Amino acid sequence: MVNVSRRMRQLTEMIQLKVGSGAVQLPPEIRRIHISFARVFGHGHLGPKLFWRNDLRRLKYYNPALDVSIVRPSGNPEEPATMTVYYHKPGSSTTSPDTVAPLLSETIDIKDKGPPQILDQILKIAGGTKVVPAEEDLETVARLKGMRKQSRVDRDISEKLNEQRRILAAKEARRKSLLAL
């Protein structure tokens, strides 16, 4: 049987993937999103990094056909942070597989913007809809929060008990050393 904490971590990761910001269903005309930002934290590049780490995986989960590319060229904080959304015009799909409608693109400056503003920019361009989480998922999230809270309480109690045991063990060791003299 697999370790309980490993199963709990996997459950938490799955729930976090399904529930939260970035859970957006984009229209099928959106083909690709390309994000470019520097490797440094400051100077306006933290928001794109947080979007990449947290929200982009949910966006990809709900849009598996979406091609996403990330470029982090260097550590130069003066480089621009941009996001390019590639899409077809609605209704421009052709019936012949030999002809492909041209991709249109729109580039946005995402430097100094947080993850919610970046997601709003995508929704503004793409016109997607936010996914409403299932009631069961919300209950699981609430249960996990309660478990984390109880875990903190239990950890504090254990730390106090361990500290008391250490004090008693030190007193006992001191008493034995005095008796040995």
UniProtKB/TrEMBL annotation:
<dbReference type="InterPro" id="IPR040049">
    <property type="entry name" value="Ribosomal_mS25/mL61"/>
</dbReference>
<keyword id="KW-0689">Ribosomal protein</keyword>
<feature type="domain" description="Ribosomal protein/NADH dehydrogenase">
    <location>
        <begin position="40"/>
        <end position="129"/>
    </location>
</feature>
<dbReference type="GO" id="GO:0005840">
    <property type="term" value="C:ribosome"/>
</dbReference>
<keyword id="KW-0687">Ribonucleoprotein</keyword>
<dbReference type="GO" id="GO:0003735">
    <property type="term" value="F:structural constituent of ribosome"/>
</dbReference>
<dbReference type="InterPro" id="IPR007741">
    <property type="entry name" value="Ribosomal_mL43/mS25/NADH_DH"/>
</dbReference>
<dbReference type="GO" id="GO:0005739">
    <property type="term" value="C:mitochondrion"/>
</dbReference>
<dbReference type="GO" id="GO:1990904">
    <property type="term" value="C:ribonucleoprotein complex"/>
</dbReference>
<protein>
    <recommendedName>
        <fullName>Ribosomal protein/NADH dehydrogenase domain-containing protein</fullName>
    </recommendedName>
</protein>
<keyword id="KW-0496">Mitochondrion</keyword>
